[in-house]
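pasting for the record
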Amino acid sequence: MASEFGDVLRRLRVRAGLTQEGLAEHSGVSVRTIRGLETGTRSNPRMTTVQELATALPLGPREREELLGAAVRRNQDGGQQDESAMDEPGPEEPASEEPGSEEPRSAQSASGQPASPAHDAADATEQLAKAVAARWQREEEQRQIQDPFPLPVRWQAAPEELTDHWANILRLPAGAAADPLDLNGELDGIAELYRSIPSGRLVVLGRSGSGKTILALRFVLDRLTSRTPAEPVPVIFSIGAWNPTAITLRDWLTGQLTRDHPGYAAQGPDKTTLASALVESGRVLPVLDGFDEIADGLRRPALEALNATTLPLLLTSRPAEYAAAVAETDVLTSAAALELINLTLDDLSNYLPRTTRKPGRANPAGNAWDPVLTTLREQPQDQPASPLAAVLANPLMVALARTIYSDTPDHDPASLLDTERFGSPDELEDHLLDNFIPTVYRRRLPQAPGTRPHPTFDPERARHWLGYLAHHLNRLETPDLAWWRLGGGLRRSTRTLVTALVTGLVIGLVDCAIATALGASFPFPIVDGTVVGLLSGLMFGLAHWLTFGVKDIPVTPSVVRLRIRGRPGTIRWKAGPRLVIGMLGGLVFGLGYGFVFGVMNSKPVWKAGLSTVLHLGLVDGIVYGLVFSGGAGLTFCLLGLLESPLDIRSAVHPRSLLNTNRGTVTTQLLVWAPTFGAVVGFGAGAVVDLLQGSLGPLIWSPAAGLALGTISGLGGALGYTLTMTAWGQWLVLSRIWLPLTGRLPWAVVAFLDDAYRRGVLRQAGAVYQFRHARLQHHLAQAHRTPPAPGRPARRR
């Protein structure tokens, strides 16, 4: 088998008209390694090397698959990859990785330069598979899907009008007879069913709460268990957040992958990110959950965009929304479609009794659910069906009923049979949704030994805060609850005004404190702090509005970290653009700052006339503009030099992403403040000396330079942090403004984490989502609806 890969490689190389030296030049793999592979003296090639060779050769899909397949078979038969033989460099060959490197799988070569996405694609794919598997295994445990066993999820073939021609699904040639596949099945067979579909495109339809998301989760875990290295990694994407009129599907998938795995934002020499390389090369199998959650009016263009690609995928949706989109355009091309079916009384009898506590020795066989299930089973056929029977046919409602009645001994499920109280399935479902939040918030969460006491939240206040969050998501038309967008539900003008006020207040207080510490006499610190605060708030507020407010662009988290110590593995960046941006921003701020202070400090000569006052203001504006321009430009360049891509193993959840960005911003502060302050403080004297003759007599002192440098360093760093970074906006809006106005609690992070642990929220990579879209819409509606007459208002 060692010669099979070599034979395939040699044949494809010769067909491409390349010598071994030419292939080495195109791929970056040494001539020595290529010669060893073709002759069989080097066995078990690493997949990264194979990927480099496949990328360098102009291969079609079948030829690429042939080459990768030969390498996979070689590795499977030969056991461990012969890394020592493959990667030992010759005299003129650079090593592919540093020996003993702590981050062997990061998007960085041993030389410190960014490796190309093609170089790391195979390793990155395997890292992605591990991260996805670990994430959804934790989520499955958190949702108690296996406790005591998964609820049955079954399906049947969807109506023919929602399924493409079977000849297209089976990839048959023209004129060939097409026999439909048997699509009937159960949850544990979803991965096997998908493998039987040649087109690799499947639509899963089901009403709200029928188990579509659970099926998608199970599909991902089962697919990863049986996946081969040559197969793509299934990744769940909440497609409800996609706007097909604003961004292409592949670009959106790339962005979502980068959001949940920031290390995949690392760029290669061709400026292609690792995430983009994986998506474009077909190494990611999109599992698109929640087509029905796409905003009204966008489902038709979304389906058209999906049909414009040949990507293998799995799509979930409610039947009505998918059928409406199909009626406007066409079915998902080459896609089979199945529809989830309801639970039966036998399913409930097998499941619900096993979710309750044993009653004790007095009646060991008794169970709180037995009388309920017996009543439902014995209901005469000639009478209208019980609302409870219809409700419990839905897995979501069964999960809610279990939470409220199985896990709380003081609740009797027999009350659900009261048809006078619950005259319709809708009323019964509203009852379960209403009582879910109070039930889970009255429960005490387990406390690990030696840890801090877990925070508790009043159920009514928790309901109000969750209602605001649900309403916030509905306004943004997305299921993704991202910490950096919690303030996105506010008007753009409100966000900008609050940002400007907080920024101006903080910088003004810092200025006042520093001026006082440097010995300035009263009332100068207060006057100076007030003026500086007003100017800073105006300038930074304007910068925030022009950058984010005009087009309503969210401030997104950084995908890099800063490394002060050691050699940072830099991402590719251009010094020119950073220098220009920094200098322009500093020039604008300096001109405005200097002009206002020049006018204010010219009070003794105001009697000389307006032209003299304006001249003095213009002179100070020029001086300060040059000083701040140089300081901002150099500081931006330094921050760029210290940027390093995150490790591709840094798959995140909301709290870790927040902590990572807080650490990055803190490092930026530590770099920005002394650097900017030093350049401004010392640069001011140099600029004054340079312009002394051309702008007239200028007065400057070392003490003034020290004060200006200290205030500018801290003030500039704080202003940039609060207005231009995701963590700063989180601090201003989510930690100050929203709690101050009663929309969220002060301990926002603890509240979100608590809601996740109680099963109200779920984690989807870097964001939270409500456990179910039905719960989100119910809470949002309750939040907008005023209390009924006679009912006490909820605490706000």
